[in-house]
Amino acid sequence: FNLRNWHEWVVSGFNALFNVSGDLAVQNTIYLVTLNGFNALTKVKPLSSNNQAMLYFSNNRALTNINGFGILNEISWDYFFINNPSLVALPNTPLLTIIGKTITINKCHSLVNFNGINNLTTIINGNLNISQNDNLSSLDGLDSLSICYGIGISSCPSLVDITALSSLTTFNEVSNRAIVNISDNSSLSSLTGLDN
Description:
0% of the residues lie in helices and 28% in strands. By secondary structure, it is mainly β. It contains no helices and 18 strands. 32% of the residues are buried. It starts with a strand and ends in a 13-residue tail after the last strand. An eight-stranded parallel β-sheet has the order 1-4-7-10-12-14-16-18, with no helix packed on it.
């Protein structure tokens, strides 16, 4: 399912859609400001375990608000936000506790925190990748995250606080090593939050 090259200001609907068995993508829009709907969507999950199913938002120049997704409880693969410079908040997904692969948040310059994924506890087989988010000041919203493969946080010049990672206690090791890369965050002066 792909909303691509959309030229409307507001997209609404899809309120009867409860499962997407492949990728759900909103990408390459120019004028889309608000995305509404998807109020019945519970899963982005393939029918076969051999396939992938991702939810991603990429290259949406004007996208500011993503509403809906309130009962989404499972993403079996990746959850991506890439190059959405006007996005002010992640979608509010209070039932989403587990993601199968990776979360990537890159070049979302209007985000200041990650409120919206507050109940996420586990990234089963992937990393938390955060990079090039100019106004990101804290990782608030990731307070419940306790398990992932690794974390990468880089080139976020306004980031001053990573204490939201204080619940992170377990790295599912890849090749007998966890991956932790925190670099080029010019305002970050403490790694408090990674004490566990």
